[in-house]
Amino acid sequence: MQPGRAPEGQTFIHSQTVEIPSEGFIALSTEIVKSGEHAISAGDWITTTATAMKDNVPDQTSVFSSGVRVKEVPDV
After folding, report:
1. If DSSP states are collapsed to H, E and C, what string results for 33-75?
2. CA–CA separation, 70 vs 11, rounded Å?
3. Mean pLDDT per 10-residue interval, the chain, length 76 residues
């Protein structure tokens, strides 16, 4: 992260497909397991985006979320 700038995704680490009900809201939880060259470390920042699909093709993508700093990464 650069000083004075909001964190934005630099390395893709995970994706999850969800279906949003007509109310427009869901509770979402996911577990990201560290592995390979894109391991997550304490002090890293994680951001998210959402992409709407239309006929199985990416249609619209949101801006990046506010970043969340990783406090600790437990050993698996």
Report:
1. CCCHHHCCCCCCEECCCCEEEECCEEEEECCCCCCEECCCCCC
2. 15
3. 69 84 86 68 86 89 86 75
